[in-house]
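Is flavin-adenine dinucleotide placement plausible here? Inputs below.
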Amino acid sequence: MTTVEVPHGSRSFVLRVAAVIAETADTNSLVFDVPDELREKFQYKPGQFLTLRIPSDLTGSVARCYSLASSPHTDDQPKVTVKRTDGGYGSNWVCDNVKAGDQLEVLPPSGVFTPKNLDEDLLLFGAGSGITPVMSILKSALARGNGKIVLVYANRDAETVIFARELRELVEKHPQRLTVIHWLEPLLGLPTADTLATLVAPYTGYEAFMCGPKPFMDRVHDALGSLGVPRSRTHAEVFNSLAGDPFADQAPVEVSDEEAADAATVEVELDGEVHELSWPRKQTLVDIMLAKGLDVPYSCQEGECGSCACTVLEGKVEMENAEILDPEDIENGYILGCQARPVTDRLRIQF
Ligand SMILES: Cc1cc2nc3c(=O)[nH]c(=O)nc-3n(C[C@H](O)[C@H](O)[C@H](O)COP(=O)(O)OP(=O)(O)OC[C@H]3O[C@@H](n4cnc5c(N)ncnc54)[C@H](O)[C@@H]3O)c2cc1C
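Reply from A.M.:
I modeled the complex. Tokens:
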């Protein structure tokens, strides 16, 4: 039994686990009760994730992100789905310990792995636990959009397929719109870029979303690249563990007179509004936006979750850790606000 009564920081909330669903032998879903007063805070877009605070005897706690597998358009309660990682701490703790009625500390939904338009034709790729955000997108697009959807779903074997029955039922319900292709390793071996390219060649006009282990996503990127799908129409969610503590409140960063005098200037567009801010060079974009009280999207603050991704329209930044971004994305001006520090004197950035 886990009981948390008081949130650890000002951004987090305590939610009750309404149900635990054993999806497969090594994967459990947690369904959360969201009380009326937190409904607005916990509104989410398909493909977004929650961050859970998991107790640890060694470090006090660890923070782990889990994508919402539920759809905001078809499911009353948010649900995350956690697959055990061999030798992993957090995922095994969740699967071993969390029961219905327990309370967990959670950061509100975050993330940018979400379709701009649910009416688009969608080409979805999921491998293993990478199905979770993809499932939310798929269910949402079926419920609220009118495009066609093709899902390529790779798994080690039939027993490890998460949401197998739900997918079968969705195909039966939407035979004209949804195609699900199960890629099972014992039958087909590991997917290669060539085999994937042949499989999805008819769908190159679709908007692509992918989530799974890095080798899988590399092959999907190669396959789509070889078919000439523009990078701007492919979206990837990378599953990493966080090292820091995004639940702790941050102390305000002190800026000396010298640093203030040398600061860059940035015009940031957020939710359609433009703000001009002074940007001291040792601070990150997220730091300066928080200091101004702006509602900047962010979560982990260590360059791992992608919530603060935005685009540089003018000027240049440097980033300490941007490994989750592909070189092509960076070339196209895509940056992580929590890692970005100014290089040029004037910048324009759009969220
Ligand atoms: C945006 C986002 C969404 C995500 N959504 C999901 C989801 O929907 N479902 C899901 O199951 N996961 C998801 N993840 C992944 C999840 O957050 C965790 O990374 C995952 O559960 C593994 O965490 P863990 O604590 O069990 O493993 P960790 O303890 O972090 O270990 C991970 C791996 O690293 C190895 N390792 C650990 N410590 C060391 C070390 N010191 N040296 C060498 N190797 C080490 C472990 O052996 C293991 O193989 C998501 C991640 C992100 C960023």
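Short version: The chain has a mean pLDDT of 95.
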